[in-house]
Amino acid sequence: MILRLFTLFLVAFLAGCATAPKNPYAPEKHSYSAAETSRTIDLTHPPRDMWDRVRRGFAIPNLHTDLVDYWTNYYASHPESVQIMSMRASKYLYYIVNQLNERGLPTELALLPFVESAYDPTALSRSKASGLWQFIPSTGRHYDLEQDWWRDERRDPIASTQAALDYLSYLYDFQGDWYLALASYNWGEGAVRRAMEKNALAGKPTGYLFLDMPDETRNYVPKLQAIKNIIADPARYGVALPEVDNTPYFAQIRKQQDMDVAIAAKLAEMPLDEFKALNASYNLPVMLASRGAPLLLPADRVDIFNANLAAYKGDLSSWEAYQSKKGESYAAIAKRYGISVKTLRSLNGLSKKQHRAVAQTLLVPRSAKGRIMLASLEQPSDGKPGKGDIRVLRRSPNIRVHTVKRGDTLFSLAKRYNTSVTELRRLNNLKGNTLALGKKLRIPGTGIRG
């Protein structure tokens, strides 16, 4: 029964399972108890790193339940999964914690994306929830997150964080209880209110611990508490958290010209997947200056980006926006730009039933390079860079060699060299995470962090 219920969850993590209650999704309600957070923090010294800052801001009462024990044991038995999520989180933690501190909100909320999206800004659920904070389209629009052909701000770390904290603040002000606020964030404030009203009519307590909730929501707060337990004392659970400096990871750059995503990554001398992790809100392979949205770069890449941009002599964009005329044939537009109607429709999200344009803006290739990139986009992805990926640029990335030493891991090397585990695996044809002492690893030339 347990294996069947957790199949989808286990696929996303490593194999194995911690000891679980007989039915972790429906524990005895009387097994719940809430206790105030109790900890000793040395406030006479500044925080050592971001994890220390997070711990210092814990303010939500701890939850002690069978489900919390189950999920704590589960995450502790999958330390690599926690490390992967923590590596992703390292890009965003400084910004998110700063925003929480400015608003006077508990820093447990900085751990919520662990539960919502595994700190993956491109995460998309079956209910179409997207981004670090998993906004569904309607809630995203309610909190002014732009969602159109060009961009989806649910995947923007700055815009989505502001919206999420606005929403969580509202829910807490409305409920007066963080457990209920978090349940409302997951299930919906209306659903939680109806569950409370149902209990009130039946003469039952209306607190979080007594509500009849769906399985996902019943496990939601326990998962957050489990992550909190591990972050609070990683050594106790055998988890090695990556180093995350108490300094800004990214900076905003205002674009003066249209720019291809691949070219921007190249100018910053960083892997394309790392660039996209910070700029996941862009739906298309080009970022238009006229939209006014900034691009995000690691703070230590800004000077490199600006210097390379000043020296770059080629076209910054392989694409352009075409303003179609009402009634203009899509076939004629596609022919003019040397692409198929199918490609034009795919690139612009057009229905097969549409044959003629309304007065609308269409993305089309500006040059032969754009057509090459389109051809690549039409091929099934095997995870390897193709002609339309970052390699379309003339200058190949600078590669260095690292000799594996005792204590080296893919996670520590990715952090040290400001790259990703995925990129290290790709460059070195690695399937797993084991590194042999003395092995020579190819490292992308993106510079060493701290």
From TrEMBL:
Domain LysM: 320-364, 400-443
Keyword Signal annotated: yes
Signal peptide: 1-20
Cellular component GO terms held in the UniProt record: membrane
InterPro entries: LysM, LysM_dom_sf, Lysozyme-like_dom_sf, Transglyc_AS, Transglycosylase_SLT_dom_1
Gene Ontology MF term list: lytic endotransglycosylase activity
A Gene Ontology BP annotation from the UniProt entry: peptidoglycan metabolic process
Family (UniProt): Belongs to the transglycosylase Slt family.
Assigned keywords, A-Z: Signal
Organism: Allopusillimonas soli
PROSITE patterns with a match to the protein in the record: LYSM (PS51782), PROKAR_LIPOPROTEIN (PS51257), TRANSGLYCOSYLASE (PS00922)
Name of the protein: LysM peptidoglycan-binding domain-containing protein
